[in-house]
């Protein structure tokens, strides 16, 4: 078997409590033709000292210490420094499953793609799901078209989830097409990076093997207010419109659903803002709805509710009749009940 050199880029910020387990999940792999680039993104705890004690003499591991510039900057540095033919991203609190690199190399050597998308499993949150069933259907095809995968990415039901760590990327493809993370974005940067890679890859293969363990911690749960969420997501939507929809009008229905989903996320995010009163939140939502012209996409999506899951259908129906206040009430009650449930679980 032709062994491909694989670079694993691991950004870390204040990860002294969990990064050893993650790095060891790589070092313990049966497949050995790899390098690990740990980018310490200005950690203020003992992460740097801890890493140097553990891995300073390990030739497989390179530790790069930088000022705190964010995960996108750390990943971009990893791309620039990568010596491998293929690159995998890994979050510092996640793990690779046993023999993951062996199975990845097997796929890469046999098919010679520019992008390999594989499955993952989720830990610590029963509300989060993976997309293994979709991958099982896709991998029946010897080669998956770019359009097929773009449609799956843009879909809002049974869609391909846009996590950047669930793929092996040709380093040459990334550098040739100048695909890097947009460091201005605080959200959706993963989604955009994977989507750009799909658009620019000449050959893509899919594997339903769940090779990556996604470990959700309290800090990674999607329950925090993100001030730039609407601006960032709409910027990504504009990129999609300019670079994909303008060349492929067949994907416009999926794009409209994506924009509607942005509005749902925007409303939910606004509800999480602890510095606004309920009335201020409602006014803020109304301004966002008007400024970004969500009215039209909500009307279209209301006529195609089957393209959404049940929770989104409820939201779209309420938004259609401008009942954001009722949605806020339902979402807030659900959120408080969820917090209470999690608190009781921790006490046991």
Share of residues in helices: 40-55%
Reading side by side through the largest sheet, how are the strands ordered? 3-2-1-4-7-6-8-5
Low-confidence stretches: none
Number of helices: 14
Mean pLDDT reading = 93
Oligomeric state of the chains present here: single chain
Strand-pairing-aware structural class: alpha/beta
* Count of DSSP strands: 8
Q: What share of the residues does DSSP label as strand, in percent?
A: 5-15%
Main sheet makeup: 8 strands, mixed
Rounded to the nearest angstrom, the distance between the terminal CA atoms is 50 Å
The helix-strand sequence is EHEHEHEEHEHHEHHEHHHHHH
**What integer value in Å does the Rg equal?**
21 Å
Q: Give the overall form.
A: globular
Walk me through the topology:
Layout: E1 6-12, H1 19-27, E2 34-41, H2 47-55, E3 61-66, H3 71-81, E4 86-89, E5 95-96, H4 100-111, E6 115-123, H5 132-138, H6 146-154, E7 167-170, H7 171-176, H8 189-200, E8 204-215, H9 229-245, H10 252-271, H11 278-291, H12 294-302, H13 310-320, H14 324-347
Parallel strand pairs: 1-2, 1-4, 2-3, 6-8
Antiparallel strand pairs: 4-7, 5-8, 6-7
Helix pairs in contact: 6-8, 9-10, 10-11, 10-12, 12-13
């Amino acid at each position: 078997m032709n062994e491909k050199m694989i670079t694993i880029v691991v950004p870390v910020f204040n990860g002294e409590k969990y990064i050893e387990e993650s790095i060891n999940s790589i070092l313990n792999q049966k497949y050995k033709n790899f390098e690990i680039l740990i980018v310490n993104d200005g950690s203020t705890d003992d992460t740097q000292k801890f890493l140097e004690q553990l891995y300073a003499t390990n030739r497989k591991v390179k530790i790069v210490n930088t000022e705190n510039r964010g995960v996108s900057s750390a990943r971009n540095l990893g791309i620039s420094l990568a010596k491998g033919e293929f690159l995998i991203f890994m979050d510092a609190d996640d793990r690779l499953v046993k023999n993951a690199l062996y199975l990845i190399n097997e796929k890469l050597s046999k098919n010679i793609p520019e992008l390999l998308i594989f499955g993952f499993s989720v830990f610590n949150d029963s509300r989060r799901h993976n997309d293994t069933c979709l991958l099982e259907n896709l991998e029946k095809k010897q080669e998956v078209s770019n359009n097929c995968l773009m449609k799956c990415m843009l879909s809002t039901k049974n869609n391909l989830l846009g996590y950047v760590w669930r793929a092996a990327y040709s380093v040459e493809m990334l550098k040739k097409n100048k695909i890097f993370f947009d460091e201005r974005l605080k959200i959706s940067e993963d989604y955009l990076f994977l989507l750009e890679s799909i658009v620019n890859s000449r050959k893509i293969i899919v594997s339903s093997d769940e090779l990556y363990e996604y470990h959700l911690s309290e800090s990674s749960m999607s329950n925090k207010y993100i001030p730039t969420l609407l601006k960032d997501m709409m910027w990504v939507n504009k990129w999609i419109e300019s670079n994909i929809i303008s060349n492929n009008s067949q994907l416009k229905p999926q794009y409209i659903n994506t924009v509607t989903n942005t509005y749902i996320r925007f409303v939910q995010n606004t509800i999480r803002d602890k510095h606004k009163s309920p009335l201020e939140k409602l006014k803020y939502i109304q301004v966002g709805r008007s400024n970004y012209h969500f009215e039209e996409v909500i009307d279209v999506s209301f006529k195609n509710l089957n393209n959404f899951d049940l929770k989104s259908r409820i939201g779209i129906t309420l938004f259609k009749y401008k009942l954001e206040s009722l949605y806020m009430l339902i979402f807030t009650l659900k959120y408080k009940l969820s917090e209470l449930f999690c608190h009781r679980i921790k006490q046991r």
